[in-house]
Design goal:
15% strand, alpha/beta, 18 strands, globular, seven-stranded mixed sheet, Rossmann fold, 648 residues, Spore Coat Polysaccharide Biosynthesis Protein SpsA, Chain A
């Protein structure tokens, strides 16, 4: 057998489907096998493979064993003289495997091969070719020198910036997203090191293949799409921790003496520096509007106070100096805090959430006013005018931001992206039906036929005029129908048109439209699949508020409720955990893999049926329904029925 293709999948059902469809086309004419290892996915990935891809050998793990362990499972049973490790969030061209097979047969010294990768927006991914992470290389990458000098052979050795992306050449490190391995070289170098859970195992294996006397090649005559980030997003602290700890593991394994110590020092410094930069960046990205509101409201109340003191009291110094440092920031915090609780910062253009939050905030300020010491009390007129100022400025700010982003003053109304769909009439219609079903608003420019012969009453034009159509009609989004458009043609058009628009793919027979505008975020889906209400930030915030209220109720009622519990100290501990946020009132009965994350719970959805002996499958389904249909009443109902069971 020529080739064994191994795909390790974890909760990426739609991406896996698209990858397998592209692989099915690419192995035509080859003696090849496909092995999928499912790492305990909960999104029906295994069922998809069994139903839609019966030719694929499927291994199903009961736990998420990690990338290296799962690949090794499949490698041990693979029969090909070449083995390809392929990510599930990839799309390969129809002739990908034929070209790679030919190159490897012509280069017997080649132990492994990697290809040119682009992200879902058509941008080249520099990790397609890399150098070994020596201490100096690690230093340049960690402290940004590689970005400052992207073409330098010295400062950007990590991504081999001096090597043209279209030049075939020997390289040090290949990406695990597409790693074509000669079985003979793998037998000498050994399997993937299972000490690496995620990241780093490709660097380690590339290093060992070279140590075994073989050459690693970068082969850009083949291009694949790699959506990236489906397991860990690059902008997250979790990514930084996992990636750099993998680098430390690599150093501990292959370096020694001062070189090893310096490398580990650089890596640890990089972890702290990147973590700090990520925290600051994420904080600003998520809270800039909150901070802007806070400053505007604070400054506005101070200006109103100054105006009222001079206009009404004829005394610029009427209010005490403490007003600017106590009253004004307190009012601003109450208003912004109320808007936060109402969801105004989750849906930034929701003016009703803004208005609701400000109204509740003004009521709270009026209540607080009565409890303040006479020294800190201000005129009620200042509070009233401040409320009007708060409403006008917060609403106005959102309207300006919305206009700058979407060219539309009315918030909640976003200018629909100009869309072109490329494919047969049947598939184009299916794409539009899916978008309509999901209420995705697009300004359809038209359909393009995959053939030069087409019905002008149905199609705007044909695919050979795609670049002209994009330029003339200012197209912002393209959907390719994979049944009608070859993968290599998609990638050619993405390369020609560039990254100014968003590209998406409708897999043959799939119920999702897949794409990604950037390598820094995970792939995006238009899908008819389930959406969890518990994933809504507002719902989660309300759940936390309920936890606090229930915790205070339990604490006040503990002299009575404690006698209903078998383990009284455990009950008190649980109340404290609820109040401090270390636990939530109701959480999943089993591991929450694939569901919105929750803290450990005092109770579970299964406790709504305490008289039944439920099996694991039923408990899992109850968890799923709880996350999908979450409402506060569910938690309250479960609590009321289990007041005697809070000591677990």
């Amino acid at each position: 057998m020529d080739l064994s293709i191994i795909i390790v999948s974890y909760n990426v059902r739609h991406f896996l489907e698209q990858a397998l469809l592209s692989v099915r086309k690419a192995i035509r004419g080859l003696d090849a096998e496909v092995i999928v290892v499912d790492n305990d996915s909960v999104d029906d990935s295994a069922h998809l493979v069994r139903e839609r891809f019966p030719e694929v050998a499927l291994l199903v793990n009961k736990v998420n064993a990690g990338f290296a362990v799962a690949n090794n499972q499949a490698i041990r049973q693979a029969r090909g003289r070449y083995i390809l490790l392929l990510n599930p969030d990839t799309v390969v061209e129809e002739d990908t495997f034929h070209k790679c097979l030919r190159f490897m047969d012509e280069h017997p010294e080649a132990g492994a091969l990697g290809v040119r990768m682009i992200d879902g927006g058509g941008q080249y991914l520099p990790e397609s070719k890399r150098g070994f992470p020596s201490p100096f290389v690690a230093f340049c990458k960690a402290f940004g020198l590689s970005r400052l000098f992207p073409r330098s052979a010295t400062f950007n050795r990590y991504h081999l910036g001096h090597l043209d992306e279209m030049e075939t050449a020997p390289v040090d490190v290949l990406a695990g997203a597409f790693m074509w391995l000669r079985k003979e070289a793998l037998d000498k170098a050994g399997l993937l090191d299972e000490a690496f859970f995620m990241y780093g195992e490709d660097i380690d294996l590339s290093y060992r293949i070279k140590e075994a006397g073989y050459t690693n090649y970068y082969f850009p005559e083949v291009t694949i799409i790699h959506y990236k980030g489906e397991s860990t997003r690059k902008g997250s602290l979790n990514y930084i921790r996992i990636f750099y700890l993998a680098m430390i593991l690599f150093a501990e394994k292959h370096f020694s003496g001062p070189r090893r110590s310096w490398y580990i020092l650089f890596i640890r410094l990089a972890i702290y520096m990147r973590a700090l930069m990520t925290l600051v960046r994420n904080l600003f990205r998520h809270s800039w509007l909150f901070l802007a509101d806070l400053l505007i409201l604070w400054a506005g109340v101070v200006l109103i106070k100054d105006f009222w003191a001079e206009f009404y009291f004829n005394d610029p110094g009427y209010y005490p100096d403490s007003f600017n440092l106590v009253n004004a920031p307190l009012y601003a915090l109450i208003w912004t805090g109320s808007m936060y609780l109402s969801g105004a910062y989750d849906r930034k253009d929701d003016l009703w959430a803004v208005t609701r939050g400000l109204f509740l905030g003004s009521l709270l300020i009026a209540a607080v006013y009565g409890f303040l010491d006479q020294t800190y009390r201000t005129s009620r007129a200042v509070i009233l005018m401040g409320s009007v100022w708060a409403l006008l400025t917060t609403v106005g700010l959102r309207m300006v931001v919305h206009y700058l982003r979407y060219g539309e003053w009315r918030t909640g109304v976003r200018k629909a992206a100009n869309l072109v769909v490329v494919g047969s009439a049947e598939e184009c219609e299916r794409a539009m039906q899916l978008l309509n079903k999901l209420h995705v608003s697009k300004n359809l420019i038209g359909w393009l036929s995959p053939d030069e012969e087409y019905d002008p009453h149905v199609f705007l034009n044909h695919i050979r005029r795609l670049d002209e159509v994009v330029n003339v009609f200012r197209v912002q989004e393209l959907i390719f129908c994979a049944r009608d458009v070859r993968s290599d043609h998609m990638m050619q058009w993405m390369n020609l048109i560039g990254s100014g628009i968003e590209y998406r793919i409708l897999p043959e027979g799939g119920v999702s439209i897949i794409g990604s505008a950037s390598s820094q975020v995970s792939g995006e889906l238009y899908t008819a699949d389930v959406r969890f209400r518990l994933a809504d930030p507002v719902k989660r915030r309300h759940k936390r508020l309920l936890d606090l209220l229930v915790g205070m109720f339990l604490l006040v009622s503990s002299p009575i409720l404690i006698w209903l519990q078998g383990r009284k100290w455990v009950f008190l501990r649980n109340v404290l955990r609820l109040l401090t946020g270390r636990s939530t009132l109701v959480s999943y009965g089993q591991e929450e893999s694939g569901l919105p994350k929750l803290r450990p719970g005092l109770l579970t959805p299964a406790d709504a049926h305490p008289w039944l002996n439920l099996d694991a499958r039923t408990v899992r389904h109850l968890d799923f329904l709880y996350a999908r249909d979450y409402a506060l009443e569910k938690d309250i109902r479960i609590l009321v029925g289990n007041l005697r069971r809070l000591d677990r």
